[in-house]
From TrEMBL:
This is Thioredoxin peroxidase. GO terms for molecular function: thioredoxin peroxidase activity. Pfam families: 1-cysPrx_C (PF10417), AhpC-TSA (PF00578). GO terms for biological process: cell redox homeostasis; cellular response to stress; hydrogen peroxide catabolic process; response to oxidative stress. InterPro entries: AhpC/TSA, Peroxiredoxin, Peroxiredoxin_AhpC-typ, Peroxiredoxin_C, Thioredoxin-like_sf, Thioredoxin_domain.
Length: 192
């Protein structure tokens, strides 16, 4: 697992779905110098666990936005799959009402560059390169500062969901450090 903390976040241009709109060349560069980014990866649209996380990110979106954080989701699904999932009502397993960008990583290069792609390439007995495993993203989460530097990363296996409030706490900790120059010890919480 590559550690990206302290390094520039890998850049990309990819198709994303934002609400009902498709953006062909979505890039995190739009946020440089302006906003923090919470880029999270999830395994697959139309799965059992993934919508619970997207619901939770959407519910906490006002808190992230209040702190100047753009939330961006990414999976190895196509933008057409994202669109279909966004059109499906929540009570049917969809994520209708989700407003943050969902990046389509159908080529799996973004997941590979962030080192969250499950599985690996190997050679079979005939000497042909084959993919071993399931080529979907692990549950990666990257907090990127306004300069494009990764300040926090967390990667879970596909069956382990995240607590979204922990991501918000990390945003608070980073902003506290930037504002006051003070480190944040274990179990640190922002003053209410």
């Amino acid at each position: 697992m590559a550690v990206l903390v302290g390094k520039r976040a890998p850049s990309f241009k990819a198709t994303a779905v934002i609400g009902t709109q498709v953006e062909e060349e979505f890039s995190l560069d739009r946020y440089l110098g302006k906003r923090y980014v919470l880029l999270f990866f999830y395994p697959a649209d139309f799965s059992g666990l993934c919508p619970t996380e997207l619901y939770a990110f959407q519910e906490m979106l006002p808190e992230f936005e209040r702190r100047g954080v753009a939330v961006v989701g990414c999976s190895t699904d196509s933008h057409q799959t994202h669109q279909a999932w966004l059109r499906m009502p929540r009570d049917s397993g969809g994520i209708a009402g989700t407003t943050f960008p969902l990046v389509a990583d159908a080529t799996k290069t973004i997941s590979a560059n962030y080192d969250v792609l499950a599985g690996h390439y190997d050679y079979n007995e005939a000497g042909e390169m084959v993919f071993v495993g399931s080529p979907v993203a692990y549950r990666g989460l990257f907090l990127i500062d306004r300069d494009g530097i990764v300040r926090h990363q967390l990667v879970n296996d596909r069956f382990l969901g995240r607590r979204i409030s922990d991501a918000l706490r990390m945003v608070d900790a980073l902003q506290h450090f930037e504002e006051h120059g003070e480190t944040c010890p274990a179990n640190w919480e922002a003053d209410k």
